[in-house]
What we know:
Low-confidence stretches: none
Number of domains: 1
Number of strands: 0
Largest sheet: none
Mean pLDDT: 81
Helix content: 55-70%
Oligomer: single chain
Number of helices: 6
Structural class: mainly alpha
Amino acid sequence: MAQIPDVTPIRLRPLPNLIFMSRWLQLPLYMGLIAAQGVYVWHFLLELWHLIEAAFGGQTALAILTKSVGYTGDAVGLNETIIMLVVLALIDVVMISNLLIMVIVGGYETFVSRMNLEGHPDQPEWLSHVNASVLKVKLATAIIGISSIHLLKTFINAANYSDKVLIAQTAIHITFLLSAMAIAYTDKLMAPPPSARH
C-alpha cells in the first residue's frame, strides 16, 4: 500500500514568518488596480456611448469626442478620421486593461499566493508558466502594443502635432522596442541550457 506523503506545513521562526507574511501588503495594491480597471471600463463605455450618439447626429457628443481625441479640424459631422481616432482610443483602453489583468493576476500569482487555477476552464494559457521573468517580457510587449496605438493615433492626427512631438513619440516607441528586446535577450541568457532543465 502506497504511503501518503506528509503535507504538514513547515513552521517558520517568527522573523522569517513576518518577512514572508509581508507579501500580503501587496494585496491593497492589487485591489487598487482592480478599482482602476473599473474606472477604465466606465471610461470605455462612456466613449462608446458618445461615439454612438455622434453617429446619430448628436453634436454635444461629437464635441466631446473631438476634444477627447485632440481633433482640431472642422468637424461638421462624424468623419472617418474622428471615428478612427475614437476606435483607436477604445483599443488603447482595452490594451491597458489587458496590461492591468496581467499585472493583477500574474503579479498576485507570482509574488503573493497561488490561485490554484490548474484545471479551471477559464485559466489563462500564459498563467500556467508565469514567473517574474515571463511577466516582465509579457508586460514589455504589452507596453509596445499600447505605444504603437498611441503612435498610430498621433500619425493619423499628425496635422495637430508639431514635428518635435512626432519625432519624440517615435523615439520613445523605438526605445520601448529596444528595451523589450534587451529584456527578452537578458531573459534568454539567464535561462538554463536545455540539457540542464531535465
